[in-house]
Amino acid sequence: MHSHKLLVFLCFFGLTTWAWSQDYVNRLGHQSDFDRLKGKPLSDKFSNVESVKTVYDLHDKKLYFFNSKKIELHYIFVNNYLGFDMDLERFNDRNYGSNPAERDFLLGNLNHIKGSDKWILELAASDHMAIAQIETFYNLVKEATFIGDSLKFYLNNREKIEWRDQQKFHIPCVTSEYIFNSVKYQEVVRGKAVGILKSYTLEELEHTQPRWDEIIVLNGTPKQLPNVQGIIVSELQTPLSHLVLLGKNRKVPVMAFTDVNTYSGIQNLMGKKVKLDIAVDTFSIALTTQSIPKKVRPKTKSLPMDLRVKDVISLATVPKNGATYLGSKAQNLAYLIAISKKNPGVFATPEQAYAIPFYFYHQHIQHKKIKEKIDRLLAASNKDSVQHINAELKAIRKAIKNEPINPVLLTQLHAKLGTSTFTNYRFRSSTNAEDIDGFNGAGLYDSKTGIVNDSIKTFEKAIKDVWASAWNEASYWEREVFGISQQQIAMGVLVHRAFPNEIANGVVITDNLFRDEFPGITVNVQLGDHSVVQPDKGEICEQFTVYHFDIFNPKKEMEVDFTAHSNLNNYQPLLSRDEIRNLYKAAKLIETNINKYWKKFTLKPIDIEFKIVGQERRLYIKQVRVFNL
Asked: What's the rounded Cα separation, in Å, for the pair 416 and 421?
């Protein structure tokens, strides 16, 4: 009887030990070993990357590769499998700090770029492991795997990049472009879609409207998003580009795949009903019998349009209810100016900031030649004809530009701006249909430069060009998708001094877009005035996330996790540590205060546009709006 119980116990113990042994190994002798344990990497910053977490126990001198789908965190593994007993805060302090003597473990991720022979050892961006331990860790992983010389060490923060520049490493190191240049797939807006797969060129989109029931493949980045079930583009996207923001706002699944035009798994399905599933690290597309969900046109949304204000308004003080007669963009800049004044030295705002109210735009479009064209468009019965609608829109823009502007407006502007030391001014859209909850309008309208006493770049031409952009093809069709009243569109104009000597420009989202469990900000920045939101073909901007793991200790160093470096800046960081630290401070300061102005009861993430200007590299914040997830 006792021997029977002992046998049962030994069998149970053996099965338990065997089950646990499948959760980790000490060597990866073949890629199949890696594949059995692989899961997601530390963050979602790269698509098309698979990863196995690894731990080296400094006390027992043992290396472990563990099941990264089943065990999500290094801390869980060392506590549950290695018998380590320490609370998370103390574990982090000891094992991510810079003091080698305090460490119990070396912690990392072994990453593989799918479809390549690129293998990368990565530490957390917050890990300040000493160089000697990094090299020890790298060599241990190399010796315990089948990878050999293909293994590289990934420099994902400023500290490690500086060590590389100082030639302190004796192991092969790479930066983000090594990964980024190998990526062929990118999740832009994750989700699932069912539709008829159809291919279009960008040129065809100028005169063809894809059907609502289609999933479309495009040979580049479109200026506007067609109203379809899903979109596949052939170019990788800047994470905060206008296409990305519009796609997220629209909630239409979008992906980028550089091999889309040669990939048989897509090309062989053209003209057929398919289901597309876009995930962070992969996608699937296959024939389906599922029904295609019909797109329901939303109820028409009315827009605020107060035409009683007839003067150019200074934004040096916050206008009361300014969004109703100046537009949200101008009102938000007034809030920024007020926040900057209350917190001197953190950031600057564009000098000589004024707003032209809706009144002057509305008065201008009452000219007979303009009004009759707008009325004809809005009464059109053939709204599905892209060619017809786009021709009508072009005629409206031309008519707006041809009619003379109200001289009272020009007199007011020159009186306010003519005595300034600045001569170049930026004229920017501030409509009642952008920068609002549920509709950001990113990239839909135009900005123009006007120069004092210039015979070509006049204030009048700049204003009329901005007014005319209310009837851009992209802005018109986006309003149609969201059910925003075309009859009530009103264009205010935000005016402030231009920035001809900007050193860098960028966008900040006050949210960590790649790791939901950690607070932070996501930053895209580019050299000079090269666009982040609408980059030229082949341009890669600098991309990074700033983490602040201890929000209760503001003196604690923030961590910067790079995703990409600018190819226009020779892949060198564009911002210094102090500039990144100040940008983080400014972003969080604005987030807190702007939500109070908006009377939000919860802290909503915001979308900020910034510039680094002049020899003193001064931080300017030029725009803020709600980030519509």
From this structure: 12
